[in-house]
Amino acid sequence: MTTKPMLFKRLSEYFQQLESTSLRLKITEILAEMFKDAEKEEIGKLCYLLQGRVTPLYDSTEFGVADKMMIRAVAQGLDIETDQVLKEFKKMGDLGSATEKLKIKTPDAGPDLKDPQGLTLNDLKLIDVYEILYQVATSSGEGSQEVKVNLLSNLIKQIDPLSARYIVRLTLDKLRLGFSDMTVLDSLSWMIKGSKELRPEIERAYNLRPDLGYISQRIKDKGIKGIKHVQPVIGTPILMAKADRLKNSKEILEKIGRCAVEFKYDGLRLQVHYKKSNNFVKLFSRNLEDLTPCFPDISESVKKSVAADEAIFEGEIVAYNPQTGVNVAFQQTMQRRRKYDIEKKAAEIPVKLYVFELLYQSGKNLIGLPYRKRKGLLKKMIKEDAVLKYANETIVEKEEEIEQLFDDSVVEGYEGIIAKRLDGVYQAGMRGFSWIKFKRAMSKKLMDTFDVLVMGYTFGEGKRTIFGVGEFLTGVYDESQDKFVSITKIGTGLTDEQFREFKKRIAKLEIKEKPQRYLVDKLLEADVWLRPALVVEISADELTRSQVHTAGRILGLSKSGKAEKVTAPGYSLRFPRLERFRDDKKPEGVTTVLEIMSMFKSQGERE
Ligand code: ATP
C-alpha cells in the first residue's frame, strides 16, 4: 500500500489550530488527529518538531540560531533588505509572523522550485523539512553560520507563508505551544483508543525512555503492545524517582516500617550511564540535561572505579572546599554547571558523588528489584575513590534511631534524611512513599519548601523602581490541566542582591502576552509576563486559602448561570521567602497542586 506523505503545510495547519485553543481536551484531540494523519516514519520526527527540536529532549543538539541570523536568512530567502525584515519584526513583535507577512507580500521565488516528484513549490514534505532542520541543528564549527543561513533561506524561499511562520519560530525556540509531553502522551492514547485510558501504561514506558519519538513510533507501528516491554538503554536517561514527605519519624515508621535511612545530601542529582567496552560515560541532570562536559572528574572516576560492563546509577554531586575538605553550599556546587573554564573550576571547586541508586547493570533492568537488593549490588559495583562515595544506609526500626540520624545529618551540614522502603522498587518519574524525605523544618507549620515557577512581575514603586520590578508572581503545576496556576507573589522580602540576580535571569524571558498555559486571576495580572523557564525555591510560614490565587481554586457558575464564582478557594503562601534559584529543575518539575493540598492537610494536623 502506498501512503501519502504528510506535507509540512499540513503540520503548520495543525500548529495553527493548536495555537487557537487553551483547552486541554481540545489540544489532545487535535494532536491525536495529527498523529493519525502521520505515517510511522513520520510520527517520531513530528513529535520532536512539536517540542521545537529535531532530537529527543535529553539530546543536547540545539539549533543555535538567534534573531540576527534568522533576519539574514529571511532577507536572503525573500530577496529583500534586512532592514525591511527588522522593521516588520519590530512592528509585529514576532519574527515568525513577520516572515509570514513579508512572504505573502513578496512574489513567489523562481520556477526552479519543483521537486523531482513534481510537487509544487509549496508542497515540501514534513520529512524533507525535518531533514533540512536537522542539518541546521547539527552543522557546527567554522563556516557553520553561513551553512545555517543558506539552509534556512532556501527553505523560507520555497515554503508557503504559514509554514514559514512556524519554521522561523521553531528554529528560534519560540514555538511555545501550550502543552507538555504529558498532553502528548494523552493524545497517543487518544489516537489508538479514543480516550486517555492508556495514558498510565504509555507514561510508564515514557518514564523509562523519555523519548517521544521512540514511544510514538512504537505505538504507531504496533499499538499499545509496542511499548509493553520497553527497557532502559545506556545513553537514554530514565526519569528520576522523587521522594514524598512525612511530618516525623513516627509517621515514617507507620508508613513503611523497618527501613533504611540515608543522609539527604544537598547538591545536584545526577544519573550516570556507563559502558565499559567503548569507554562511554554520559551524565544527566534531573531535568535530563546532558552534564557530561561539566564534570570530566566524575567521568574519569566512573571509568576507573565502576566494576561493571554497563551501568545506570544515581547519586548526588556535592562540592567541597579543597583546603578543608568540608562540603559547601548548593550554590557552589551549581557553579560547576557551566560551559566554560571547566578545568579551572574543577580544580577550584572539586566534587564528590554520593552514589545511592542502581537502576541497570550489564543488560539487566533492576528497577523492579527491592531497594535492599539494588543497594547490595551497588555497593559491590562501586570502588570508592576521591570522587565516588557510597551513600551509606542505616537500617532502623525505632523513632529514636531516626531522630538520632536526623540530628547527625544536621550536625554534618546535610539537609536532613531520606527514609527508604526496604522492599521499595525504583519508581521512575514518580513521587512516592518508597522514599520519604524529612528535612530541617523551615517553619513551625510547614515541613518543606516549595519549588515555584516565576510567571511574571509587576512594576515597582518607591525604592524598588531602581530594579524596575515590584513583585514576582509565582505558580505551581496543575497536572490535571497541564497548566501553571498562581500561588504567591514574592518581593518585599528580597534583598537588593536577590533583585539584581532576578533581573539578570529574567532578561531573556520577557514575552508580550500571557502564555496560554498560565491560569491567573484578573486581579493578579502581571505587568510583564515571562515564558515558563525560571524556577525558584521558596520557604513560607504557612499555607493559607485564597480567593484570588488559582492553585487548587475551583470555579463554578453563579446561581443565575451567567457569572463564574469561586466554589472552592485556592491556596497561597504566607510570608514567602526566596531560598535559592533551582536551575536544576524545569517548569513541570515544580511543586504540584496535589502536593500543595497534601501539605495543607498535614499542616492542619500539626496545629
Ligand atoms: P528538595 O527540594 O527537598 O531537594 P526536590 O523536590 O528537589 O526536593 P525530591 O525528589 O523531593 O527533590 O527529594 C529528593 C532529592 O534529594 C533527590 O532528587 C536528590 O537530589 C536528593 N538526595 C540527596 N540525598 C539523597 C539520597 N540519599 N537518596 C535520594 N535522594 C537524595
Give your account of this protein's structure:
This protein is α+β, with helices and mostly antiparallel strands. The chain folds into three domains: 53-171, DNA ligase i, domain 1, CATH 1.10.3260.10; 244-438, D-amino Acid Aminotransferase, Chain A, domain 1 (2-Layer Sandwich), CATH 3.30.470; 450-606, Nucleic acid-binding proteins (OB fold (Dihydrolipoamide Acetyltransferase, E2P), Beta Barrel), CATH 2.40.50. The chain contains 20 helices and 23 strands. Strands 12, 13, 14, 15, 16, 17, 18 and 23 form an eight-stranded mixed β-sheet that branches. Strand 20 (554-557) and strand 21 form a beta hairpin. The longest helix has 15 residues, at 144-158. It is globular. The N and C termini lie far apart (69 Å). It binds adenosine-5'-triphosphate. Adenosine-5'-triphosphate (ATP) binds next to strand 1 and strand 11.
